[in-house]
Structure formats: C-alpha cells, structure tokens
Design a protein that fits this description.
- By secondary structure, the protein is α/β, with parallel strands linked by helices.
- The protein has helices at residues 23-29, 47-52, 73-92, 110-121, 135-142, 164-169, 185-195, 218-223, 242-245; strands at residues 7-12, 34-40, 62-67, 97-101, 126-130, 154-158, 175-179, 200-205, 213-215, 230-235.
- The strands form two sheets. It has a five-stranded parallel β-sheet, with helices on both faces. It has a five-stranded mixed β-sheet with strand order 6-7-10-8-9, sandwiched between helices.
- It starts with 6 loop residues before the first strand and ends in a 20-residue tail after the last helix.
- The structure holds S-adenosylmethionine (SAM).
- S-adenosylmethionine (SAM) binds next to strand 8 and strand 10.
Length: 265
Amino acid sequence: MTQKTGILYGIGVGPGDPDLITLKAVKILRQVDIVFAAASTKNDHSLAVNIAREHIPDRAPVVRLKFPMTRDKSETRKAWKAHSQTIIAELEKGRNVAFLTLGDSMTYSTFGYILKYVQTIAPHLEVRTVPGITSYQAAAARLNTPLVEGEESLMVVSGAQGGHRLRELHAKPENVVFLKAYRNVTDIKAAIDETGNYPCCVGVKSCGHPDEEIINDIEELGRRKPDYWTLILTKHANNNGTMKDASTTTRKEGGLDPRPEAGKT
Ligand SMILES: C[S@@+](CC[C@H](N)C(=O)[O-])C[C@H]1O[C@@H](n2cnc3c(N)ncnc32)[C@H](O)[C@@H]1O
C-alpha cells in the first residue's frame, strides 16, 4: 500500500498586527505537523513566526530555513531548491506542512519560489495556498485612505530599482504602491515629482508593528537610514489629499490598540 502524503499549506500571516491573520490560517496552523519559515543566514528572526506563534501547537516543530542575502541568483536558487527538498521529505512522510510568509503568500513572497520547486520536483504532492492581508492593504486602512475607487487602477511595483517602473508606466495608473522601497526612497520621490501625476504620497514603516510610523515627508524618509519594512503609497491629482492630512505618526496617540507590545524578534 502506498503511504499517504501530507499537504503543503502556503500561509500568508498578514503584515504585522497579530489580529490580521485570517481564521482560515489559524484553523490550519492548529492542525499542521511542522511549520517552516524563511530566515536570513545572519540571524534566526522570523517575523512571520512571531505573528503566528500563538496559533502553532507545541507539538509542531518550527524550522527556520536560512536564505542567503545575496544578489547572486545561483546562490539563492540553490537555497530554494535545497529547502524545497527538505519540505518535500516531510510531505512524503505524510506530514502536513505550513510554510509561513508575511503579508500575502502570493505577493512578492518567498512562498512563490518554494511553490515552483515543489510543483516541479514533486508534482504529485498537494499544495494549498492561503492568502493573507498585504502590507499595502494594511497601510491604506491605517491611513483611512481608499486604495482605488470607481474606475481607478492600482499599480503595485517593486521599488528595488528605484523609480524606474514609475517612469516607464506612469501615464496609466491613478494609484501606485511601492513595496521594497527602502533603499531607493530618494529616486522614487524623484520619479513621483518628474511625472507630476501623484501629488499625494506617504511612507509607511512597519505597519501594524509596535514601531509603526507614518511618514508624510518622503524627502525626510529618504534621508533616514533605510528600513526594509517600508512602503510608499501614492495617489493621483484628483485625490482630495486625505493621505497628507493623516498627520498622526503612531497609533499610540489614541484610539483602540489591541496589539501586544511584542518585539520583532
Ligand atoms: C518581499 S515584499 C513582501 C510583501 C508581502 N508578501 C505583502 O503581502 O505585503 C517586502 C516588502 O513589503 C513591504 N512590507 C511588508 N510588511 C510591511 C509592513 N508591516 N509595513 C510596511 N511595509 C511592509 C515593504 O515594502 C517590504 O520591503
């Protein structure tokens, strides 16, 4: 008789606030046999694990897979493949596996790479992807600012190459979200100014985490030490400027704040 294989669940745990994990993710986490998450080779931190921690049963080991922080694609491919094989070995033993990612599991996510390798190396294995709330949805909610309305469009781009994508595509979208903005804030701001189409722009750092910040002055954000957990929301000329009016800098200034003061580690 052939052994029953396990299921791989790719789970987006949301952007930071532990209350923004979905019920579906929680229900699955309570039942899995082992949990994987990406971590840097420099340390063992996994924000995704911290967010999901209270829902992971004690019996389920948590394994942090180390990924080299390098631009050398062959190095990263090697790591993805090796880690996928580690996960496949668990699935072949009949264990149900969760792979955690921050925000949504299909948005600039490490799970996308694992998924490709698992489907290529072991196409007989079952994979179920569980979506999560993205960082930019949380940021828009934090700013009480709609991302899109009526017939508008929204472009989500990587800021890893600065304002390059906006310079190419700015004639089209009314609203633009830059993820991975941290190293290139100054060039992104320059591209926003060049197009002249987006007078409203706001930086949001560590949305939903205890060190959350709303940065209305993007030039000032550009002068700061780059922080990976940074995104920029921009809106077109017809916007009524509500984002700029969001002058509070931290949620601690008032209102309901149910978040535990958990650190990043
Ligand atoms: C590799 S992408 C991952 C995106 C994630 N899967 C999502 O759905 O939001 C990493 C980038 O997402 C953004 N990001 C993720 N979490 C964030 C947060 N809590 N606050 C602000 N930006 C965040 C930052 O721009 C960061 O550089």
